[in-house]
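In response to a reviewer's request, we include the raw inputs and outputs for one of the modeled complexes. The three entities were modeled together in a single run.
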Amino acid sequence: MGVDFQSFIEGLTTAIQPMNLLWVLIGGFLGTVVGMLPGLGPATAVAVLIPITFGMDSTSALVLMAAIYYGAMYGGSRSSILLNTPGDGSAIAATFDGYPMTQQGRAGQALTISAIASLIGGTVAIIGFILLAKPLASFALDFGPAEYFLLLVFTLSAIVSLSKGNMVKGFISMSIGLLLSTVGIDLQTGVYRFTFDIPQLSEGIDFLVVIIGVYAVGEVLYNFLNIDDIKKEKSKVGKKGITREQWKSSKWPMFRQGPIGFLIGVLPGAGGSIASMLSYTTEQQLSKNPDKFGKGAIEGVAAPESSNNAASVGAFIPLLTMGIPGSGTTAVILGALIMLGLQPGPLLFENNPDTVWTLVNSMFIGNLFLVVINILLIGLLVRILDTPPKILYPLILVLAFIGTYTLSYSIIDFYILVIFGVIGVVMKLLKFPVAPLILGVIVGSDMEQNFRKSIVAHDNFINILFASPITITLLIMTVLSIAYPFIVEWVKKLKQGRA
Amino acid sequence: MARLIVPSFFITIGIVYLVLTFNLPRSRTGDPTAPLYFPLLIGGILVLFSIIYFVQEWRKRDEKFEAFKALFVGRTPFIIVSTLIMIFVYTFLFERIGFLFSTIIFLTALLFIVNGRKPWIKNILISVLFSVVFWYAFSELLNVSLP
Amino acid sequence: MKKYIGAILVLLAVFIAGCSDESSGSAQNFPNGNIEIIAPATPGGGWDATARAMQKIFDDEGLIEENINVSNKPGGGGEVGWQYLKNQDAHTISINSSLVITNNLLGQSDLTYEDFTPLGILSTEWISVAVPPDSSFGSGKEIMQQLKKDPTSLKIGVAPSLGNNDHLSFVQAAKEFGVDVSKLEFMVYESGGDVLTALLGGHVDVASMSVSESKEQHLAGELEILAVSSEERIEGLEEVKTWKEQGVDMVFPHWRGIMGPPDMTEEEIAYWDEKIGKMVESEAWQEVMKNNEWEPYYHNSEESKKFLAEQTEKYQELLQQAGLTE
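The model returned the following structure tokens for the whole complex.
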């Protein structure tokens, strides 16, 4: 579409109208809050707001809903970092190094860097949006079943390779996740699989329930194990500011991972979870000291946070250029816009350029707002850590249940929640990595469906692997990601042998 | 030997899953066994790696296995079991007596279990306040349908 | 300490008793309590949109004085919500669609529409057959002729499941042309949006989807609609021929309706007929229809009953021909 300067300025003037500024502020704040609470993701927040948007101007409604979406990306990392309880798939990667940082008394810095990373990722993505929306949309269309299948395989292998030294446990965890994803109606044939005649299971197990179960409920139960021994030491939060050195080490990860997250966000169906996990693993492999990762490396917080916010901006490209929702949240936004008489699709840029440009500008303003809000909130948020654990953890447990109920309005999910809470504790005790399980649940059914569609399209397995330059690239990356730890080990031995 | 329980458990899950897979209904359209392939693959991977895990643990069989020790210290068994019981009570009451009251009861009970009986005023206060705030925010402000 | 536990138990008992009391009010002056509209799906889809639009119009236009709540009860393609409806009284009504028929025919549910009281059919969408703009097909007829020669030669995208309207409308059209429909190769996607992506990216050859999902793309030249399932040509898509014009005697609505629990009294049915009849006349409802690309398709309770019976027969036949049932 190119940059139409005049429309851009018009969009800017609409975006800075007081009413729209207010919506951005409200949306961003609300997003931050729901992002923090387990289970209450942006999709739920937007859905419950639909009736409220009824009377609104459609542009303002879009501005508000978008602000909730990226606001949740900011908020999501808060609970991951402070409590090890991510509220959403895209916030999981922030626990890997964010929570260790909190345990080391560096929560302030972790929260600061994640807000800054989100801003950078968001900004990079907005610029990408302005310059590349149309070409990227057609790139996304090139992603057929074979490409998706290999992207998902690559993501899984990357996450399994994280559990260095214990890949066997990683693979077991992954297979359990995939196994769970096969519960429900098989899309291609309508066959009911592993539903045991429970109608609520026919649409499968919601990965959000699994996340809340394993992380939030699991974390609570795990802390109950020695609740009496957790000393109420005046928990150290550390300073908020980050040092020059920390900036230096996380600068490139943030700028690098922004575009990656953005690209993945553009692909319908991939989204923030995959973007942030991939960003985390690639940064670890690029790092000079990969061993620091998982033990409170600041880059480990910066990379995925930049990436998931960029992905949330990218997700608007297929929505606005083609009317295709690329994620759960954008699907709800699409529904709401249609109710308001605005039809996103190829004609939107021609018919309502003001709407599009207002949104773009509001996203930029919103991201600035959110950094300020989130950095100001740090002081308040870290107070959570001052709450005695004996009160804090019961509250988190109740929150987990409330959040889960708003996902599907079914108490069957309560049982699933407990089961996964117990699984979460057991996995922690046995030192099993949890991320492969979660990712398995998130991508499993897409992986299978895309695999089967690509078999129909390409006749056999080998053809799928070599279907296009994209698949070949992904295949090579998959092999590398699994082999990489072994290669590193081998090189080390070689060096030692020589010395 | 306790350390062999976990890998054996995974092997069992894998096998049960494979058996269930073989018993899945066949598809009426296209390839009748199409819904089975992916589950078979996953089940296979799970069994394979569980066996490797079993072998790894077998080699370490003389080392002490203490992963679950934390479960049996002091008040822990009481807390875990009563929390789980309360969760089931909550689930049972949730749609029967409604969100507000069931949540108050659940949270109060949890706080009594974990925080102890002494600060009972605080426990009840927190529960009521917390539940009412959430109930109000959801069902009154946001129109979420809560029972 | 024990005192307090005792107190809590007493309170608990009072609440439980209180709750069970409420439901046993007499049904003399209907309605005499809160109204509940069930959307048997999560917020954000067509069922939820319909339920919330009804709630808003009933309230805004002053049609119903009582409090109206929308309850989301997703699961099992409507099954969870309808199981719940079955045990309620006439204050509770639920959105339905052809799934209330097909779930049962496909053996996925014991419930049929006869287990409920049909209160009306509200709206419909029409279903389109679309191809990429560079496709060699110029009409729906040409597609069918190719499929008649070789039913496996085209990949057909549908969502969100086999046995759904998008799928069955294509099956019906194909069958009328004499295609061996049991051999057709359908690619099933999770949502209409995914089908659209696949079609635009050239990953399927033909797609069957709601007009509301394809119209905008057609107008932008991103894809071409070759046939629609409506009785007459669709407003804004005047150049697209209906299946009827292409030699297939078929009209295939994708309707949404409303039903109440079983055993409603005549008085209660009359109440809902009046209220729903007034609602569909309102300007706000017309606006909802227009924005969603839905079409008014109002049938009252009496007509709905007949309509559902006819539809059941139709679906039974189609599912059998598609090879989904014996």
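As requested, we also summarize the result in words. The first helix of chain C runs from residue 2 to 22. Chain C has two domains: 30-124+253-321, 126-246.
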